[in-house]
């Protein structure tokens, strides 16, 4: 219905919103995406006087340790040492678990001596660092290397000014081999940590607020869709907590909980996958509900159910340290993404308005998470966007889905209100129908009883006074006419709207037309032995668009009723006027009037103020008048007081004014 239409159902606004979101994602890419790697002939990192962050990946060599057993002495041996290859700016080296050796040379040409080497991957299994003098083949004293408490896999080390060292790193990862490494001075490191913690504080505060909001909606509405989304938010945030290293930092390396999790899952990456796959599982249940797959894409429901069964199995597999589990998880994620895109587009095509919100939520989420995915496949270099793209995308997604769920709440409330109104209307219609049937039954039963009694008297040869048979036959004939008239009025009332729509409305100058009608009505009033008084003050230029015969029928009905209920010698008042784009017609009498409790019902079908009064007709005349006036976009009403007569009015809109 038009009242339920929202701004998202407007195609132009929807397309504009898509373009706006794509533009916004493009701006973020422009600001935060990494610049393409520019090859350089330098074979070492040169630290200058200015503070800043140095990307180690651009000036480092990598070596795959397939056995995972090589020592520092092994990789320094000439046969293995020659196998090192330039990383060329890459930070991702494959999707499978393995061990890598990394080598880089640092030349300190700045006055700063305390530096921090940071590995921006908190789910690695092992990270060992060795610092060798430029001409040395053995590590420098261990005292110059100190693990930073502020961040996992960040190390302080002293590097004297104008000195040069070679750094070897051994990295073992059980999943995707992503090794983004940064080198920075201490002040830059602390400043960067401060900004990151501010960002994390805002992000996780927002996440907790959203999860609490969705959980409260579930508590008050008892709709599982809100519970699924709340759990999705919680588990997704926990996975990001592990990925960003905050869980390790908050709990500490000696935490019993962290020790238990590592014993249960084996490594940090498996913990991360457990929470992330769990979030996708609840996200799948949420999407099935919000997209109403059973209604809009029933065939696709088979795939949803299959993936819903597979989801807990993939989650449970993280407990058993299955070889290649990380690859299985990546395949599951890809299948989830493909199913989400196809089902959302299909449901939108089938007319589900909520699917449009899902699409608007998916654009920023996928657009901002894409750099992280591309970085995983070595298709994009490490940057702020590749590292935190999921968080930015999640914020946009949470906002859009909160709007979508608010839309569902509003729609559910509207549907509930409409259902209540429809139920009340049906009850009123049923009550009116019952009353109408009772009235019809009474109005037909009474004359039929008279006719039946007369026929039985004739059958049984009841002796009546001379000429009585003729009177009885005339009485029965009158009753049959009354039944036919009643049925004709009912039939006319049922077909009135159809007849009005198929008839041709006429543009009628109302002043001249009502004057001619009043002349005819005054003659009818005089034949009834009554007086008439006429008052016309209609703008001569007023034109109405009417079906003249139907309006004439209304006037005749009102005047006929006035004549029936007026005492002999009284006056019938006719009036017509125009004002504010309408014409007003009135018919008044000086009869006994209508009691206040009957005023709201006199226009109902088959309603009679006094059913025992022989002056009452079928009770349908005023109902027909109301229907006719309504079809002309007008209104009709009555004003009356007991003992003071009745005044019926109807008002019609003026179509135009002649010049």
UniProtKB/TrEMBL annotation:
Coarse class of the protein's main subcellular location: membrane
The Enzyme Commission number assigned here is: 2.7.13.3
From the record, what ranges are coiled-coil?
A: none
Q: Quickly give the catalysed reaction.
A: ATP + protein L-histidine = ADP + protein N-phospho-L-histidine
The record ties this protein, via CDD domains, to: HisKA
List where the protein spans the membrane.
12-32, 197-219, 226-246, 273-291, 303-322, 328-349, 356-377, 389-407
Give, as one word, the top-level EC class.
transferase
What keywords appear on the UniProt entry?
ATP-binding, Kinase, Membrane, Nucleotide-binding, Phosphoprotein, Transferase, Transmembrane, Transmembrane helix, Two-component regulatory system
Checking SUPFAM superfamilies in the record gives: ATPase domain of HSP90 chaperone/DNA topoisomerase II/histidine kinase, Homodimeric domain of signal transducing histidine kinase
Where is this gene product found?
Membrane
Report the residue ranges that make up the Histidine kinase domain in this protein: 439-656
The family database entries (InterPro entries) matched by this protein are listed as: 7TMR_DISM_rcpt_extracell_dom1, 7TMR_DISM_rcpt_extracell_dom2, BphY/WalK/GraS-like, HATPase_C_sf, HATPase_dom, His_kinase_dom, HisK_dim/P_dom, HisK_dim/P_sf
Recorded protein name is histidine kinase
């Amino acid at each position: 219905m038009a009242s339920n239409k929202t701004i998202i159902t407007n195609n132009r606004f929807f397309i504009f919103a898509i373009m706006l979101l794509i533009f916004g994602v493009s701006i973020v890419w422009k600001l935060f995406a990494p610049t393409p790697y520019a090859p350089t002939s330098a074979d070492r990192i040169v630290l200058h006087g200015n503070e800043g962050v140095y990307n180690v990946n651009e000036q480092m060599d990598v070596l795959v340790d397939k056995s995972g057993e090589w020592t520092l002495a092994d990789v320094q041996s000439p046969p293995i040492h020659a196998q090192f290859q330039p990383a060329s700016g890459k930070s991702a080296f494959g999707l499978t678990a393995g061990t890598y050796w990394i080598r880089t040379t640092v030349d300190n040409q700045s006055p700063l001596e305390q530096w921090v080497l940071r590995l921006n991957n908190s789910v690695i299994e092992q990270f060992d660092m060795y610092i060798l003098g430029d001409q040395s083949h053995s590590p420098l004293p261990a005292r110059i290397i100190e693990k930073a408490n502020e961040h996992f896999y960040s190390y302080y080390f002293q590097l004297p000014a104008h000195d040069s060292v070679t750094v070897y790193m051994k990295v073992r990862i059980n999943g995707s081999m992503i090794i983004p490494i940064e080198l920075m001075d201490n002040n830059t490191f602390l400043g960067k940590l401060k900004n990151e913690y501010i960002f994390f504080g805002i992000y996780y505060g927002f996440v907790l607020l959203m999860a609490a909001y969705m959980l409260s909606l579930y508590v008050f509405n008892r709709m599982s869709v809100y519970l699924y989304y709340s759990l999705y938010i919680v588990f997704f945030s926990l996975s990001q907590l592990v990925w960003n290293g905050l869980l390790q930092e908050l709990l500490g390396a000696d935490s019993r909980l962290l020790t238990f999790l590592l014993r249960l899952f084996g490594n940090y990456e498996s913990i991360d996958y457990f929470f992330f796959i769990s979030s996708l599982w609840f996200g799948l249940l949420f999407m099935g509900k919000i997209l109403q797959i059973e209604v809009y894409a029933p065939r696709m429901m088979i795939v949803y159910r299959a993936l819903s069964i597979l989801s807990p199995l993939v989650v449970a597999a993280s407990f058993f340290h299955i070889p290649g589990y990380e690859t299985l998880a990546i395949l599951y994620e890809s299948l989830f993404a493909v199913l989400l895109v196809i089902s959302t587009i299909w449901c939108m095509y089938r007319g589900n308005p909520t699917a449009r919100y899902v699409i608007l939520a998916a654009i920023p989420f996928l657009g901002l998470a894409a750099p992280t995915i591309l970085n995983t496949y070595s298709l994009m270099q490490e940057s702020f966007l590749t590292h935190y793209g999921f968080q930015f995308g999640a914020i946009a997604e949470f906002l859009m889905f909160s709007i979508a769920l608010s839309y569902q709440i509003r729609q559910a409330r509207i549907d509930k209100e409409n259902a209540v109104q429809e139920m009340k209307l049906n009850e009123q219609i049923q009550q009116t129908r019952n009353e109408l049937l009772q009235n019809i039954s009474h109005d037909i039963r009474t004359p039929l009883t008279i006719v039946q009694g007369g026929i039985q008297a004739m059958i049984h040869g009841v002796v009546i006074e001379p000429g009585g048979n003729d009177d009885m036959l005339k009485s029965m004939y009158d009753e049959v006419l009354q039944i036919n008239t009643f049925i004709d009025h009912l039939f006319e009332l049922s077909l009135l709207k159809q007849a009005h729509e198929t008839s041709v409305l006429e543009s009628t100058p109302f002043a001249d037309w009502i004057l001619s009608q009043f002349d005819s009505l005054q003659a009818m009033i005089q034949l009834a032995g009554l007086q008439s008084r006429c008052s016309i003050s209609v703008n001569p230029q007023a034109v109405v668009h009417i079906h003249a015969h139907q309006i004439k029928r209304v006037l005749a009905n009102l005047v006929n009723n006035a004549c029936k209920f007026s005492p002999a010698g009284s006056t019938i008042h006719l009036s017509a006027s125009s004002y504010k784009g309408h014409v007003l017609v009135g018919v008044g009498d000086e009869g006994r009037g209508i009691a206040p409790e009957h005023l709201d019902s006199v226009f109902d079908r088959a309603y009679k103020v006094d059913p025992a009064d022989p002056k009452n007709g079928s009770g349908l005349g005023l109902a027909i008048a109301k229907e006719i006036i309504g079809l002309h976009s007008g209104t009709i009403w009555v004003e009356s007081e007991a003992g003071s007569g009745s005044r019926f009015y109807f008002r019609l809109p003026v179509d135009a004014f002649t010049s």
